[in-house]
Each structure stands twice: as C-alpha cells, then as structure tokens.
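Researcher: Can you fold this with zinc ion in place?
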Amino acid sequence: MNTAHIPKIELHLHLEGAAPPAFIRGLAAEKGMDLSRIFTGDGGYAYRDFPHFLNVYEAATSVLTGPEEFARLTTAVLQESAAHGVIYTEAFLSPDFCGGGDLGAWREYLAAIREAAAQAEARDGIILRGIVTAIRHLGPDRAKPAALCAAETAGDFITGFGIAGDEMTGKLKEFTWSFDMAREAGLQITAHGGEWGGAASVWDAVKDLNVARIGHGVQAIEDPALVAHLAETGVVLECCPGSNVVLGVFPDWGSHPIEKLRAAGVKVTVSTDDPPFFHTTMTDEYDRLAETFGWDSGIFAEITKTALEAAFCDAATRETLTKKLELTP
Ligand code: HPA
Ligand code: ZN
C-alpha cells in the first residue's frame, strides 16, 4: 500500500522537535554556537536515552532565539508535513522557548508563527493549530506564565493547553492552577502521560485533569480496568509508535500496544512526536502500521475520523477538513 498520499491528521507534534537537524546546525553556525555535541557524524540528533533526549532537545531549541526563526521553522515543518499527506496538524508551542513566559514576547512569536502558517495553508492547503504547552520538569511555577500566555491568546489558532517534558518529575495535580486557567479561557486539554510513568500516570491525567486527550497514554495497556475506562469514556490517545520504539518504551513495533488498544475500543490516533529525532515521518508511521499490524485503508480512514473528531479546532475548520477528506477517493 502506498500510504504517502493518504490524507492525514496529526495531533501530536512538538514544533521545535520537528526542526530538521540541518536547520538547527545552520542557525548554530550563523550564530557561532558550538552545538557539535548534539549531532551524530551523519548529521542526525545524538542522544542516549529519554533524559538525554530532553537535554539535546533543549540545546537544539536554544538556537531559536527570535520570532523570525520560529517563522522559518514553521514554514519548514509544515512543508515537510504536507509532503506526507498531512492536511491538518496541531503543534505544541511553548512560551518557555518563545520569550521565556513573557506575554508581550509570546504575542510576537505567535504572530510570526501564525503568519508562516497562513502562508503554508495558502501554498499547500495544510492547516495548523497550536497547543500551548507547559514543560513539566520546569515545575508548576513556570507553568503559570505559560498558562497565562495560553489564556490571553486563546482563540481560533491557540485552541489547546497541554504539558510535556519529563513525566517522571512531580505530579500532574501540582499543575491544576494552570490547567484551570486554560480551561476557563475555553482551551481544550491534553497532557503527556503513560509514555514513561505507567498506567498510574494515565489515571492521573484522567482523574486529576479530566483531559480530553492524552499524549501517548500507551502504557494504559498495563491495566485492563484503565483500558476499559478509556474505551468507555472516549478519551483519545495521541499515539506515536515510532517515537516509543526509538526511545525504548517498547522493544519493537510488534510489541507496541496500539493495535491491542484499538481492538479494545480505545480511541487511538497516530502522530510523529519529534520526527527527525526519531527518524520518522507520518508516511513511515503509516507504512510500519500497515506492515506490522496489517492496517489497511479502512483502518486508516477510521483513525483519521477519530483524529478529526478529537481535533482541537472550531466547527468551521472541522467542516473544511471533512469536505477535504470526502473529496479524496
Ligand atoms: N515526550 C515528552 N516530552 C517531550 C517530548 C516527548 O516525546 N518531546 C518534546 N518534549
Ligand atoms: Zn510528545
């Protein structure tokens, strides 16, 4: 099956994490920054494990120091996504990386990202929406300005609020203030959980934050009662199997629980997370799912429908996407 041309909806993509290594290397060279430690000999990102990945991620991001650079990044990322058939994507955007939590600076970064997204939409038809994201290992106090940035810019483009970073640091409950602020501003909620912290961490996201979606969530498979709960309540999992396999959450594609979760009635979707870090694209994800689990065009259509329904966008955007999907044979 040629999956490159299947229209795709991606719900879990870290904007900085989608930066091509050559893009980051080029900017570092322009600024005279020595980032050679974060690259492999053949030009990819070099990291040992998840904590080191987060460290390399932040080092790579440190070269992106202004709105113009985020605009260039947005253009590059959306062009690549569109080439893989992505018609709609939601990107995690972090005020911590875009002005350090200062609202005025955040507005400038956001304006630049939006402008680049509007141009990409006009050129390639791809639609972008943003999920403002707190970084868990920076702690609850740093999440508060991020939540304020999210609340102040909530609207047709910033449609969600979430949390990423080191899931083994702190408890989600400590971030309630920020999630409440985001929710009160009308934002929809997702949280990374169940990538590293087991089923307990998925329960925390469900019970403590009442999330609509969970980033990863795949370790829910350890707890049959949780799998049943997710299936019953319709909480959507933003699964990123290639990311999980490369980071060693599961030893290989055959061991990844996405198919078991789907078969149990859990709403699963497919995304790339940080594609160049994990040597993946949406086409690669689809190809591996077809190879490993025999997913066919019917199952991919079902996944797309789930993602469309779970997208944090307004009704008009969902209608546009529905029409685009209907037009595709
Ligand atoms: N997991 C958690 N936090 C992250 C990731 C990830 O894969 N990428 C960027 N921040
Ligand atoms: Zn992620």
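Model: Folded with zinc ion in place. The pocket of zinc ion (ligand 2) is lined by residues 12, 14, 164, 192, 215, 273 (CB under 6 Å).
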